[in-house]
Amino acid sequence: MQRLWFTAPFQVEVRDEAPPAPAAGEALVATVCSAISPGTEMLVYRGQFPPGLAVDATLEALGGAFAYPLRYGYACVGRVAALGAEVDPAWAGRLVFAFQPHASAFTAPVAELLPVPEGVTPEDAVCLPNMETAVNFLLDGAPLLGERVAVFGQGVVGLLTTALLARLPLAALATLDRYPLRRDWSRRLGATACFDPADPETPDRLREHLDMDGEYAGADLVYELTGAPAALDQAIEAAGFSGRIVVGSWYGQKRHPVDLGGRFHRARLRLISSQVSTLTPELGARWTRRRRLNVAWRRLTEVRPGRLITHRFPLAEAAQAYARVDQAPEEVVQVIFDYRAMP
Is 33 left (phi over 0), alpha (psi -120 to 50) or beta? Predict the structure, then answer.
């Protein structure tokens, strides 16, 4: 089998290792495809993660702290190839999703495997974490009927967030991204307008679209999903009085001064942090991780995010795959590793 290791900033290795044998209660899964996260995973690739921070305290497969060498990734789809003792034979051959690092095969407790629903393709299923993140953004932002919403950043998570927001009866859904390919997808997924933040006319056009000179000036709800701290100032500027700004980006070690000395206080703006490893406590009485996952599965069947895949690589070409995401973002929406061509 092959496993991917991050060994230093901008360095990855694919190592041949002996296939693991499933222990009692576990299954061996032969991976069909796994998805590169263009957000968090690229911080690991670039060495921009905070040293010593836990990788993910909620996922057993991602235990430990951020430090090289590191196995990472959290979106694998595969077929159960072998069963350990005490596992129901019905698991054999089943297509499953797992929050596992990139590898051509892996073992995991069957309790941590998520059966892929009938009719969901591997390419759609591998986008489950991104869809769950988008669902979490809507739970945290709580968009209301008739609100005006702006989304900064149309990477794959931003696009899925836009697709979910477009299914609501909003007054306006404006999105912003630097790259034409992503802006095109944003419009196709339901944005009422999509702007290039580098265009000098964008502030005026965004102001007009959000009716920022009207009685209820500015956006009611803004999402900052670019991964660039400098965009937070733009998000603050777009929000109206008492507006909500959901910060879904994880900046890692990236820093930028944020202007909180202007209209931020007088406009009584609210910054809301959002991270998919937990649910907002306000919903804790009725929402669980399982309920959120079930919503994400259903949304996958509607949005079909597999169509956002722009590049497929064998795991042996991992270095080229990460370089493409890092150096040619204008060409990339979603990149996956495809294991079906492996000998």
Answer: beta
CA-closest candidate to residue 42, choices 321, 315, 331: 321
Contact (CB, 8 A) for 96 and 277: no
Prediction pTM value: 0.93
Confidence (pLDDT) at 263? 84
Where helices occur in the chain by DSSP H, the ranges are 40-46, 122-125, 128-141, 156-165, 180-188, 202-209, 231-238, 289-303, 318-327
Distance CA 74, CA 85 (A): 26
Bridge partners (DSSP) listed for residue 12: 6
Kindly give, in sequence order, each residue whose CB lies less than 8 Å from that of residue 152, ignoring residues fewer than 6 positions away: 158, 175, 176, 197, 222, 223, 224, 225, 226, 231, 234, 235, 238
Residue 283 in tokens:
């919903």
Mean pLDDT for the chain? 92
* Model pLDDT for residues 41-80, shown as the tens digit of each residue: 898 999 988 776 666 655 565 667 788 899 999 999 999 9
